[in-house]
Design a protein that fits this description.
Order of helices and strands of chain A: HHHHEHEHEHEEHEHEHEHEEHEE
Protein name (chains A, B): LacI family transcriptional regulator
Structural class of chain A: alpha/beta
InterPro entries (chains A, B): HTH_LacI, LacI/GalR-like_sensor, Lambda_DNA-bd_dom_sf, Peripla_BP_I
Largest interface: A-B, 48 and 47 residues
Number of helices of chain A: 12
Oligomer: homodimer
Shape of chain A: elongated
Pfam family, one (chains A, B): Peripla_BP_3
CATH architecture of the largest domain in chain A: 3-Layer(aba) Sandwich
Largest sheet of chain A: 6 strands, parallel
Number of strands of chain A: 12
Distance between the termini of chain A: 70 Å
Number of domains of chain A: 3
Radius of gyration of chain A: 25 Å
GO molecular function (chains A, B): DNA-binding transcription factor activity; transcription cis-regulatory region binding
Keywords (chains A, B): DNA-binding, Transcription, Transcription regulation
Strand order of the largest sheet of chain A: 2-1-3-4-5-11
Helix content of chain A: 40-55%
Strand content of chain A: 5-15%
CATH superfamily of the largest domain in chain A: Response regulator
DNA sequence: TTGTAGGCGTTATCAT
DNA sequence: ATGATAACGCCTACAA
């Protein structure tokens, strides 16, 4: 690889001048600029970004930490973030935290040691305190899908509680009163909030909570299967099933087919997230839209604005979920 | 951030010694090692990886280029690759090529300028020649899901042709003779090969090719929908539908439900890839397994061996597909 | 076993 | 507008 020095020699200028035309960080006479550019082309010169980073203390790379790299949810998130940064010549370095506090912490250290200019974090196990400490330590990061009051200005979230409310209200408005609920792991914040929204809707319609109609799943497909089996085995009476995410809803639908149970005639099912396989189910899944791509875009813009001082469209911190009505729910 | 220099001063040794304990690249007396480590801890020292890269000409980062970041297929691939490298302290820089030659080329340049030690490429638009040139230019890379004879030793592939053969043979063995085929874009190599396998199976069973039962889709869900509608509108007679990937199979199944068509009684459907939503469909999709995670792992090991000189398990260049029989196919 | 000193390829601060 | 020249933080012969 040619270096800036060789370019400068070929162009007959100093290497400082070459640097100037690369970054146009200072005026350069048109004639010299042309000479330099010609030299760069001739040598096929590409600036060494590592050296640039060392000298400028900027790496032009952004670290992304998500729980998993697979799965429809994170795929869309990453996709949007990458596109957004790529458009401005920046790179993403990606790591997975696997919902484990130790791995999350270690991943963050990992990304920091790579001199990332900023981090976009989707973490669920690390403590609020840790995050506050990170912020105090001068680490530039933005938090996705989690709200921590002390660093509210760095949080981009979905109103999970309202989403949970909408899902259950949707069932209630269809006339259902016996509504079973399949939650995610209750130690996860979004699971807790979605459930709170569920209770809120029930209260609003004067339906009292029935512990027998609650099941704590794992946000996985199998959790949905087990949930349905559990309710059936317990001989619970319910006409609607609210699932805290689409994976579990899919599992429940699969299990229902195996009973068999006619959907949505004998049971209405609603999911949460609107991941892209949600319309592969049969019947097509009614769900709550989680605008994950937009949230990813917003996180990227937060970084562009706060770290790279670029002017962008206005930032938005809270996104609103909404019902996507398809075929898996029906009036009773 | 503390530098190696500060550590050396605090420990009362030269900075070369500190470097040695960091990389243990030369013997260091136990006593000094302890002193240095104590100093590092006290200062919370973390080596600056950018400076390390510049000095050592190693970035400890691997560039990954895939067509898309979203979608079940690439998610699993990335997930496995990241895990494999992460375990040995290396990180991945990820870019998307969007099946476009220009973007693929640019992405490769992008990753190279980041001084990646190696690239793992899943490209479909860039020419064989370009890749050969890249290899000649001394770029360390391994190619996934594509075979280029001139650089065969860098290719890790699935036997797509055999997979196509297995899918259609499965239908033939179930007694089907009128088999419609939904292909991917024929300019893509895997689509072409899967189709070749299809023809091979037909020939083996003495079934002649029927152009009316061929439809070129786009590897997307909508392609499957359009395919089924196309065949039906053309009044084609067929009892089985072979789709070149699971997305299109899902689309076809959805469309079949809308007709409605009883599955698998009135129509058997098989997909290809065995992506993780393939059992969300109803009936659960019979498909061809594409061991994408294993392929990702193998690519990572290729890099570990050929670039980082690590000893790993033996490398494997060609993976074999196999039929995953679920509920969407049935004897006629 | 340890220290010295010269690079790695840029950026950035001075002069000129 | 352009050119020297010091950083940037670390690695690595080469010496000691």
């Amino acid at each position: 690889m040619a270096t800036i020095y060789e370019v400068s020699r070929l162009a007959g200028v100093s290497l400082a001048t070459v640097s100037r035309v690369i970054n146009n960080t200072a005026p350069v006479r048109e004639a010299t600029r042309v000479k330099v550019e010609a030299a760069m082309n001739e040598l096929g010169y590409r600036p060494n970004s590592v050296a640039q980073s060392l000298a400028s203390n900027r790496s032009n790379s952004i670290g992304i930490l998500v729980s998993e790299l697979s799965g429809p949810f994170y795929g869309e998130l990453l996709s949007r973030i990458e596109a957004e940064f790529r458009a401005v010549g920046k790179h993403v370095i990606i790591a997975a935290g696997h919902s484990d506090a130790e791995m999350e912490r270690e991943s963050i250290e990992f990304l920091r040691s790579r001199n990332c200019d900023a981090l976009i974090l989707h973490v669920e196990s690390v403590s609020d305190n840790y995050l506050r400490g990170l912020a105090d330590g001068g680490c530039a990061f933005v938090l996705i899908n989690r709200y921590v009051r002390a660093i509210a200005e760095r949080c981009i979230t979905l109103d999970n509680r309202h989403g949970g409310y909408l899902a259950t209200r949707h069932m209630l408005q269809l006339g259902h009163r016996e509504i079973a609920y399949v939650s995610g792991p209750m130690w996860k914040n979004d699971a807790k909030e979605r459930y709170a929204g569920h209770l809120e809707a029930l209260a609003e319609f004067g339906v009292s909570e029935n512990k027998a109609l609650f099941f704590e799943g794992d946000f996985q497909e199998t959790g949905g299967v087990r949930a349905l089996q559990h309710f059936l085995a317990a001989d619970a009476s319910f006409s609607a099933l609210v699932c805290a995410n689409d994976e579990m809803a899919s599992g429940a639908i699969t299990a229902a087919h195996d009973i068999p149970l006619e959907l949505p005639d004998q049971l209405s099912v609603i999911g949460f997230d609107n991941v892209n396989f949600s319309h592969y189910t049969y019947p097509k899944l009614t769900t709550i839209d989680y605008p994950i791509a937009e949230i990813g875009q917003m996180a990227a813009r937060w970084v562009l604005k706060n770290v790279y001082s670029q002017t962008t469209t206005e930032l938005k911190a809270i996104f609103e979920p909404r019902v996507i009505e398809r075929d898996s729910t029906q009036k009773i």
